[in-house]
Specification:
Blueprint lengths: L1 E5 L3 H12 L3 E5 L3 H11 L2 E3 L9 E4 L3 H9 L8 E4 L4 E2 L3 E2 L7 H9 L2 E4 L21 E6 L2 H13 L3 E6 L4 H16 L11 H4 L2
Parallel strand pairs: 1-2, 1-4, 2-3, 4-5, 5-8, 9-10
Antiparallel strand pairs: 6-7, 8-9
């Protein structure tokens, strides 16, 4: 599969490198040519610009959320492109900078007309790398999107990382996933294990 990645941060490095090792054709598109070339060398990917990363079968948007609007405005049209949104609009106090608005994924979809799938936003970047000694088993990866073909494509990319995809709803549900991630980040940073909040499934099912 041909994958374009807009961004050169930790998520771009982890996901791009893992997909390249899985045999995909990955192009990293960064705003800094030097940083992009360096990261491409590390991950066995190609180097390009953000505009050039809007190519192939799918594009991953891997930017700080406060940089998204400016970068998208400089790109060619993304209408009908499969666009994975892994951003987290988390500000001080682990609150969402999108406030009571429609959420990051819906805002990006409305601005671009792309077939947006929210995915890969609920875990730290290093856990998307392969191999990943910190995570000995596969993780369930929640996906939100309105386009079945786009969801199927992203699910394939999840499986290529050794994880399990789980579609949890349409793009209207992405805001709940984004809120949950902000909550999880707050717990992790305060030294709490979110898993201790939940009993086994067998205990809550009748």
């Amino acid at each position: 599969m041909r994958i374009g990645i807009i961004g050169t941060g930790s998520m771009a490095q982890a996901l791009g490198g893992s997909w390249a090792r899985a045999g995909h054709d990955v192009l990293l598109g960064g705003r800094s040519p030097d940083r992009t070339r360096l990261l491409a060398t590390r991950t066995a990917a190609h180097a390009g610009t953000p505009a050039e990363a809007a190519f192939g079968d799918v594009t991953l948007l891997a930017l700080p959320y406060d940089a998204v609007a400016g970068v998208l405005a400089a790109l060619p049209p993304l209408r009908d492109r499969v666009l994975i949104d892994c951003t987290n609009a988390v500000g001080p106090g682990y609150t969402l900078t999108t406030g009571d608005g429609p959420g990051a994924a819906r805002t990006i979809a409305d601005a671009t007309g792309a077939r947006v799938v929210k995915a890969f936003n609920h875990l730290p970047a290093h856990l998307w790398s392969t191999p990943r000694p910190e995570a000995p088993g596969p993780t369930t990866v929640p996906l939100c999107g309105d386009d079945e073909a786009a969801l199927a494509l992203v699910a394939e990319l999840v499986r290529d990382l050794g994880h399990r995809p789980l579609t949890v709803g349409g793009l209207d549900r992405a805001a709940y996933l984004e809120t949950t991630t902000a909550f999880l980040i707050g717990l992790w940073h305060s030294g709490h294990d979110p898993r201790t909040l939940l009993p086994p499934l067998t205990a809550v099912r009748p």
